[in-house]
Design brief:
5 helices, about 0% strand, Arc Repressor Mutant, subunit A
Length: about 130
């Protein structure tokens, strides 16, 4: 009986260790994907970097890398213009456009909000005019 309990404790410890190792490996893979996307796109803007981190966290490494590769293909084929046609999108702009396109098509509004619009400042409202005292 005692031996069985000891064996169960050991198995539990081993399972916890395996879970911790797996967690560390996943975290390392996420950091690697985030770094790869940021460096490939040449992003330096803190907001864009935060959005890339959120994409990897919420949707996954494979998705982010796939969209990065798609963005590179689009760029190699001449890039994408802005909606108003004024200029070409940056490589990062193409990446974010492709990510948003998938989220819209799949109806993933919550992910879209969490990735692109979380913690943005609310629009500034003009100060109310005070009634003139007469």
């Amino acid at each position: 009986m005692r031996k069985k309990r000891e064996q169960e404790k050991k198995q539990k410890k081993d399972q916890v260790k395996q879970a911790e190792v797996q967690e560390r490996q996943q975290a390392k893979a996420k950091r690697k994907a985030i770094t790869q996307v940021i460096e490939t796109l040449g992003e330096t803007d803190s907001r864009a970097i935060l959005q890339i981190e959120r994409i990897v966290e919420r949707i996954g490494n494979d998705f982010a890398i796939a969209k990065l590769q798609e963005a590179e293909v689009v760029e190699a084929q001449g890039g994408l213009m802005l909606a108003d046609g004024s200029r070409r999108r940056t490589k990062g702009g193409v990446f974010f456009f492709l990510v948003k396109q998938v989220l819209r098509e799949e109806g993933r509004r919550v992910d879209m909000k969490e990735i692109f619009y979380k913690n943005q400042r609310p629009p500034v409202e003009p100060p109310q005019q005070q009634a003139a005292a007469t």
